[in-house]
Amino acid sequence: MPTRIVTRFAPSPTGYLHIGGARTALFNWLYARGRGGKFLLRIEDTDRARHNEAAVEAIIDGLSWLGLDWDGEPISQYARRERHAEIAYALLDKGAAYRCYMTTDEIEASRLRAIETKSRFESPWRDADPATAPDGVPFTIRFRAPRDGETSVDDVVQGIVKFPNSALDDLIILRSDGAPTYNLAVVVDDHDMGVTHVIRGDDHLNNAARQQQIYAAMDWPIPSFSHVPLIHGADGAKLSKRHGALGVDAYRDLGFLPEGLANYLIRLGWSHGDDEIIPRVKALEWFDIAGINRAPARLDLSKLEHTNAHYMKALDDRAVVEKSAPFFARASVALDDGRRAQLLRAAPFLKERAPTLAAIVDAAGFLFLARPLDLSGKTGKALEKEGARALLAEIAGKLAGADWSSPEGLETSLKDFAADRAIGFGLIGQPLRAALTAGHSAPSLGEVLYALGREQGLGRIEDAVSP
User: Which of 200, 284, 408, 409 might form a disulfide with 403, Cβ 3.0–4.6 angstroms?
Assistant: First the structure.
């Protein structure tokens, strides 16, 4: 029976859920869930000086918003520090580690000599007789890394990557205060949690060599490593805030849908043919580590908006109203029952024009204008043309007897009106659009009238006829 796949996402709680971290979590989730495996969440909180409980909540909130669930409770790495220390002493007993009594000044001087001589840093305690160890002096535990040969990491994404052991010094695995270091804690946790596949950013590739040495020293099975190239900006430079390297919560606050953001993240560094829109169910079926590109992906906000627009159009009309409500509130637009009804009627047209929920507010700008509309200046120019207001009065009469149950019916009434008078549609369209929208961006006139409703639509026209 094949081993059940177990992946994990292991963020440090020092800030928000970064866009790169969200992609890493998504890749891990898809790989495990798509194969009936387990996806675990571990908070790497051993650095208590930088620990931020609010960041833990932000990470959990961001993952939940993206629809990424995990098995069991989130695991605290800090809570497992005694287990990490146990393994450090087990390595000591095996002869795979040693006590180091070097002071901070001695370490710094030794490192400078290693740099000057282009040699590997080594502690004098590596081969010292344990009997010469001083009593009552604090010590660290260092891993006894091999001096010769090389460590070869078989990476699914990067291929076989070889590290000369001469470049991998004896890292500290347990500090003098008993706190474990990152590379030890990660190995112990991944082993104890049964992680079979480690999928993470390629900034951890060097760590993989050190961690693999610890696995070997403990005679533990080595998980499959997949180091994914980091996300870059559109200019090819390392991603930063100026490129839009925000937290997941910021994209949510900008009005992106979780489905849209997740779809875009899937395509950042992975592809399935030419498919741009990949629903979650298809992503679970298609995603495979082998399809991850070796080249860094580039964040393109215009492409993100394009992808999100697809999911905006697919939203149920009532969902458009509910999901956009917080953005109207932020713009100080109160959605009472009447306005909600108008917004619901307009939803089919607005969601076609708005790439994000936030953009719905602007797209709906014409809906909630106070009467009488401000038709001064350039906005009302179309109404100043000779006969424009008289024409509007006739249009109002035509619409008064029209069928307001659909935008198509209203559009037909307007076209019939123009045809009956043998005039171009533009002659009625310009003054009517000014009267109804005061120059705000808006959909077709039939859709505008339908969204406004009979009372509001005729009222605005009458206001323009008799300013």
Answer: 409
Cα end-to-end distance, the chain, whole Å: 81
> pLDDT tens digits for 211-264?
999 999 999 999 999 999 999 887 877 776 666 557 899 999 999 999 999 999
Pairwise CA distance, residues 146 & 131, whole Å: 23
Cα distance between residue 57 and residue 139, in whole Å: 36
The two tokens of residue 32 are 């495990």
- For 287-312, the pLDDT digits (tens) are 999 999 999 989 999 999 999 999 99
How many Cβ atoms are within 10 Å of 355's Cβ, its own excluded?
Answer: 23
Residue whose token pair is 């394009």? 306
| Residue 382 CB coordination number (10 Å) | 21
Distance CA 217, CA 144 (A): 9
The residues, any chain, with a CB within 8 Å of residue 397's CB and separated by 6 or more, are: none
Q: Contact 255/327 with Cβ under 8 angstroms? A: yes
Q: What is the distance between the alpha carbons of residues 55 and 90, in angstroms, rounded to a whole number?
A: 34
* Ramachandran sector of residue 118 (left: φ over 0; alpha: ψ -120 to 50; beta: rest): left
**With 60 as the cut, is the pLDDT of residue 60 above it?**
yes
Angle at 418 between CA 415 and CA 420, to 5 degrees: 105
Tokens 């906000």 locate to: 301
Axis-axis angle for helices 407-420, 425-437 (nearest 10): 130
- Which amino acid is it at 143? F
385 is catalytic: no
State the amino acid at position 66 in one-letter form.
Answer: L
Q: Is 95 exposed, middle or buried (0-12, 13-18, 19+ CB in 10 A)?
A: exposed
- Compute CA distances 136 → 100, 225, 273, 435, whole Å: 13, 41, 64, 88
Which is catalytic among the residues 118, 162, 238, 241?
241
The region of weakest confidence among 106-120, 251-265, 388-402 is 106-120
Q: Tokens 């424009």 — which residue?
A: 388
Task: Give DSSP secondary structure letters for 124-179.
Answer: TTSSS-GGGPPTT---EEEE----SSEEEEEETTTEEEEEEGGG----EEE-TTSP
441 Cβ contact list (under 8 Å, min separation 6): 353, 362, 363, 365, 366
Long-range Cβ contact pairs of 397-404 (< 8 A, separation 24 or more): 399/449, 399/457, 399/458, 399/461, 400/458, 404/449, 404/450, 404/453, 404/454, 404/457
Tokens for 363? 């797209």
Q: Verify cis geometry, omega within 30 degrees of 0, for the bond prior to 258.
A: no
**Longest distance between any two alpha carbons in the chain, whole Å:** 110
Is the CB of residue 58 less than 8 Å from the CB of residue 23?
no
